[in-house]
Design a protein that fits this description.
Length: about 300
């Protein structure tokens, strides 16, 4: 028994006449009668009682009909769904990305998505962590790339990699000879930081609060690239994910690991409905792991500080 025979059977059952069913299916009557006989032989049951005017379905036919309809409907829905992968329809995927991870992940991810799913339209939004979570909850985003754990209930995270909070200073800064800087030392430094709405700033403030300290904020910018452009012209410091050095580092800046304690940053994929986004999560996780573990990537899926 196959789907073609089921479709033929349903037509005969509903029409009650081989001639009308054959016309509906655009095949010849002998061919249709032969298919029904083969189906009866395969199932070892009689499906119709033949009379001079019409075919009368047996109890077995009623049973088969009730099972055949959802099977044929499921096959049609599967074909429609697969149309997304055959260019018959376009699908969009809205992704919210933290500014502090955007520059190192998104460019390479986009090209890999294009090759893997050429009919998928990816919409990227650079947002703060709180805005990513808000949009995931209201349904305007499908997936976020953010720090874990999530802060809003109802959201689920999938770990991608670990980074570390790193001190960034101008090349002529007084701490230029230090190989690493303790949190206590960093707490004394005047800083140029991202605004308080940024999750990275909140992480930094929490770490200092654990030491009974407050950040020495001299200036704020809401753009990470702007901070890095400004630092060489100041004696200020900032804190950023160590991974940012790969994309944004320059000879005018020095990146110093923070210690005592070190501050790990967990970056992951975040969504509201894991079951609904399962295919997209699996695709992005696979492609981002390729980016993280590429031969030119220094992290190899975890943090390595310069």
């Amino acid at each position: 028994m196959d789907f073609k025979q089921l479709r033929y059977f349903v037509a005969v059952y509903e029409e009650g006449h081989v001639g009308r069913a054959a016309e509906r299916l655009s095949i010849s009557q002998p061919a249709l009668s032969q298919q029904i006989r083969h189906l009866e032989q395969n199932l070892d049951v009689s499906l119709f009682e033949r009379s001079s005017k019409r075919l009368l379905p047996t109890l077995a036919a009623h049973t088969l009909y009730n099972h055949a309809l959802p099977l044929l409907d499921g096959l049609q829905r599967a074909r429609e769904a697969l149309g997304n992968f055959k260019g018959q329809a376009l699908r969009t995927l809205a992704i919210g990305v933290l500014q502090t991870v955007h520059s190192s992940l998104v460019p390479q991810m986009l090209e890999r998505v294009r090759k893997a799913q050429p009919h998928l339209v990816v919409q990227i939004y650079e947002l703060t962590g709180l805005e990513i979570e808000r949009r995931l909850l209201n349904g305007s985003l499908d997936i976020g790339i953010s720090y874990l754990p999530t802060r809003q209930p109802g959201l689920h995270g999938v770990m991608l990699y670990e980074d570390e909070l790193t001190l960034v200073i101008p090349a002529d800064h007084p701490l230029r000879e230090f190989k690493k800087v303790s949190m206590s030392q960093a707490a004394e430094l005047p800083m140029l930081l991202l605004g308080e709405e940024f999750q990275l700033r909140q992480i930094w403030q929490t770490q200092l609060a654990n030491l009974g300290r407050r950040p020495q904020v001299q200036a704020e910018l809401n753009n990470m690239a702007g901070i890095l452009d400004s630092l060489p012209h100041t004696r200020l410091a900032t804190v950023l994910p160590g991974r940012s050095q790969k994309a944004l580092g320059s000879h005018e800046l020095l990146w110093k690991p923070l210690t005592e304690p070190r501050v790990p940053l967990k970056v992951g994929l975040v969504c509201r409905d894991v079951q609904r986004q399962q295919a997209s999560l699996a695709l992005l996780q696979t492609l981002l792991e390729e980016v993280l573990n590429g031969p030119d990537d220094r992290l190899k899926g975890s943090s390595t500080m310069a």
